């Protein structure tokens, strides 16, 4: 039985523990008694829909998992889930297409909660050129693509440092979401060759992605954009990764192709 299939009390208790909160901590935030929190977790009290939404907010539970708690308690989900082609998502889809197009000639892509590629602009092909076609088949996982020995890894010139950055970022995401599929992905990625990062902390403010493209060594820094205050499950799980040149050589190459 997965966590989202467990009784609602078990789910509340799991998330409270995952957030390293005591029953008193959660009771104070939700403005209820510790006794009530205890009764909810043990099943001695049945939570109302409003109470579950309140606990979900204070425990910072992902929208998908809040819906699972509601279903476990016999309530309908509170947060819809649409695909990008659904009519209600037209504004979101348009925003994504506009951002991807506007970012060219710099690479930009959209990923879901498991780092599967949702969309990208044409420049992303610059980074993925030479990767095994199997890694590019939908749903292509961009983290697997970057660290797999048949993917981008042979062309990443700072592979050990980039690998450490990716795994650390994935650790933070697992801590925030408790997602078992991300845990499995992390184990897989950690098993790929890539060496150990022995870089001493220096003046650099961010970890760049340095990748060989033809005869050029290009260097990028990336930013992540998410939608503010999402009320749709799918929207809450989308992230837009935009890459910017980290040096003059990369800027010139993106501008002229040489």
What does this structure look like?
- With 258 residues, the protein is α+β, with helices and mostly antiparallel strands.
- The chain folds into two domains: 3-72, lambda repressor-like DNA-binding domains (434 Repressor (Amino-terminal Domain)), CATH 1.10.260.40; 87-256, Beta-Lactamase (2-Layer Sandwich), CATH 3.30.450.
- It has 13 helices and five strands.
- It has helices at 8-18, 23-30, 34-42, 49-58, 63-72, 90-103, 124-128, 133-136, 142-147, 159-177, 180-190, 233-236, 248-256; strands at 108-111, 117-120, 209-213, 216-225, 239-245.
- It is elongated.
- The relative contact order is 0.12.
The domain tally reads 2
Q: What is the terminal separation in angstroms? A: 55 Å
Instruction: Estimate the helix proportion, in percent.
Output: 40-55%
The first-level CATH class name of the largest domain: Alpha Beta
Give me the Rg, rounded.
Answer: 21 Å
The fraction of residues in strands falls at: 5-15%
Going by CATH, the architecture of the largest domain would be 2-Layer Sandwich
What's the pLDDT, averaged over the residues?
A: 94
Class inferred from helices and paired strands:
alpha+beta
What's the count of strands?
5
The major pleated sheet works out as: 5 strands, antiparallel
CATH fold-level label of the largest domain: Beta-Lactamase
What is the topology, as strand order, of the major beta sheet?
A: 2-1-5-4-3
- Discrete helix count: 13
Low-confidence stretches: none
Element order, helices and strands? HHHHHHEEHHHHHEEHEH
Task: Using the alpha-carbon principal axes, give the shape.
Answer: elongated
Domain HTH cro/C1-type: 12-66
Protein name: Helix-turn-helix transcriptional regulator
Pfam families: HTH_31 (PF13560), MLTR_LBD (PF17765)
InterPro entries: Cro/C1-type_HTH (IPR001387), Lambda_DNA-bd_dom_sf (IPR010982), MLTR_LBD (IPR041413)
């Amino acid at each position: 039985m997965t966590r989202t299939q467990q009784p609602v009390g078990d789910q509340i208790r799991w998330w409270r523990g995952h957030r390293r909160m005591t029953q008193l901590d959660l009771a104070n935030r939700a403005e209820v008694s510790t006794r009530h929190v205890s009764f909810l977790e043990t099943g001695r009290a049945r939570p109302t829909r409003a109470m579950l939404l309140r606990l979900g907010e204070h425990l910072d539970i992902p929208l998908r998992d809040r819906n699972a708690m509601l279903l476990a308690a016999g309530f309908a989900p509170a947060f819809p889930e649409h695909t990008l082609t659904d009519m209600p998502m037209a504004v979101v889809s348009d925003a994504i297409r506009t951002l991807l197009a506007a970012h060219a000639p710099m690479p930009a892509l959209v990923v879901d909660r498991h780092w599967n590629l949702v969309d990208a602009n044409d420049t992303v092909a610059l980074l993925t050129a030479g990767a095994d076609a199997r890694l590019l088949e939908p749903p292509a996982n961009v983290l697997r693509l970057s660290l797999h020995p048949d993917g981008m890894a042979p062309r990443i010139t700072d592979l050990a440092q980039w690998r450490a950055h990716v795994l650390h970022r994935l650790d933070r995401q697992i801590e925030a979401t408790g997602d078992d599929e991300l845990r499995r992905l992390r184990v897989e990625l950690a098993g790929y060759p890539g060496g150990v990062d022995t870089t001493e902390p220096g003046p650099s403010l961010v970890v760049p992605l340095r990748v060989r493209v033809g005869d050029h060594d290009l260097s990028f820094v990336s930013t992540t954009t998410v939608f503010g205050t999402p009320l749709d499950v799918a929207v809450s799980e989308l992230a837009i990764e935009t890459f910017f040149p980290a040096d003059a050589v990369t800027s010139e190459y993106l501008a002229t192709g040489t």
